[in-house]
Amino acid sequence: xxxxxxxxxxxxxxxxxxxxxxxxxxxxxxxxxxxxxxxxxxxxxxxxxxxxxxxxxxxxxxxxxxxxxxxxxxxxxxxxxxxxxxxxxxxxxxxxxxxxxxxxxxxxxxxxxxxxxxxxxxxxxxxxxxxxxxxxxxxxxxxxxxxxxxxxxxxxxxxxxxxxxxxxxxxxxxxxxxxxxxxxxxxxxxxxxxxxxxxxxxxxxxxxxxxxxxxxxxxxxxxxxxxxxxxxxxxxxxxxxxxxxxxxxxxxxxxxxxxxxxxxxxxxxxxxxxxxxxxxxxxxxxxxxxxxxxxxxxxxxxxxxxxxxxxxxxxxxxxxxxxxxxxxxxxxxxxxxxxxxxxxxxxxxxxxxxxxxxxxxxxxxxxxxxxxxxxxxxxxxxxxxxxxxxxxxxxxxxxxxxxxxxxxxxxxxxxxxxxxxxxxxxxxxxxxxxxxxxxxxxxxxxxxxxxxxxxxxxxxxxxxxxxxxxxxxxxxxxxxxxxxxxxxxxxxxxxxxxxxxxxxxxxxxxxxxxxxxxxxxxxxxxxxxxxxxxxxxxxxxxx
Length: 543
Description:
The protein has helices at residues 46-59, 67-70, 97-118, 122-131, 136-143, 148-155, 160-173, 179-185, 295-303, 358-367, 448-452, 456-474, 527-532; strands spanning 15-17, 22-25, 30-32, 216-217, 224-227, 233-236, 240-244, 249-258, 264-274, 277-285, 310-316, 319-328, 331-340, 345-353, 369-370, 387-391, 394-398, 404-408, 413-419, 425-434, 437-445, 478-485, 488-495, 503-510, 515-522, 534-535. It is an alpha+beta fold. A hairpin with a 7-residue loop joins strand 23 and strand 24 (503-510).
């Protein structure tokens, strides 16, 4: 095999890179176009050589390797002569330790894979090294790397989180599926799934000395907010728990899209925003037996607008979890997505962190736990024992534990009706009649996941249906007004002006009991009945 030409800069033998159609000097760490080596009258000045290399770098989209980008001299002079003598060939490379490590990685990538692709990485590599505070021994190891095998060995010394963010950043710069891009991505090991998996033994225990404060109702769904003595806060419900580094903002809002049935839905959001740093939990409850119409595909599509997305799957407590990672500069977005189709739940926990806050973000993601409370529809004792007791002259309807009480004008009949297939609830109807007058009080209990789907948007839809039904029943126009029942905001529908039939209906949802209470009265005023409704205090589910 014939030898290559000599480097005009250091006289070392050059190596041919067929994919670039250029010569490369391993010592100087530069690419040299063939035309730069063509014979010409007289000696070519070194200034002229660097002009040619500069033009090649511009035309080739960054053909020159890292030494032209980060200032790694590679042991030879890279400065055009300006009348003074050249610097000695053995001058130490210039740059920060991270820049030198990045230059060495790029050199190895150019040597063993593709120099043009590797040359896109130095700034990304140096920034990630500096942001994630790579250990000095890792940086030293990379500076001495002679090839991609050495780089892989050094990168195995990074923490799993550092490996994950580094690989995500490289994927951002080299998102293609060509063999050489895959080779460069694979110089960073894929962290094992156990690096992001959480213990199945329950939520992380409280740190020593940390105590929980009194729980507060959020009045959003059935969620409670529990302060901790260390300044952190726990969001908890029968379905989920998560620990935030500070007090989160809590809201429920209508989604900007519709579900697979074309119906609107709400998103429960809990978030801590600290500048560009974000810790967020979002829950969508669609009701049991949901179907997946590409939910995660849409998540990945939206995240793809931010940059290349990496995806990894794992399983916790029998629940599949998909983690999406997107990196931009020093920031990394991590999203853990959980879809529970039998219960109709979509739970996304998200962090956007930098090097200084990444550990806090990982702690937040690790704190998110999905619970599996029993289904009341499978409990034969759900809403059993609803009855009426006489207190003085009052007839008080109640259940076994007095979780609700309401005063009825006459002795009612009590009928319990389980409906696990259609309404997915258990109803108890108390109907009291006297002559033409009727007072019907109905309690329906659902599972925590079905009850959570009774969000404000769905309740509004129920009220619109009630308006239409009441208009037919009344034989005229009706109106809806808010009313307080049992300390909660409910609604009342009654006729406007003349109506064929005197009728009124009331509706209130108690999210903490997972129950809906309805009152319908014919030919009988019922404001007194509605106002007599009382709910027992509820206690939060344990974090």
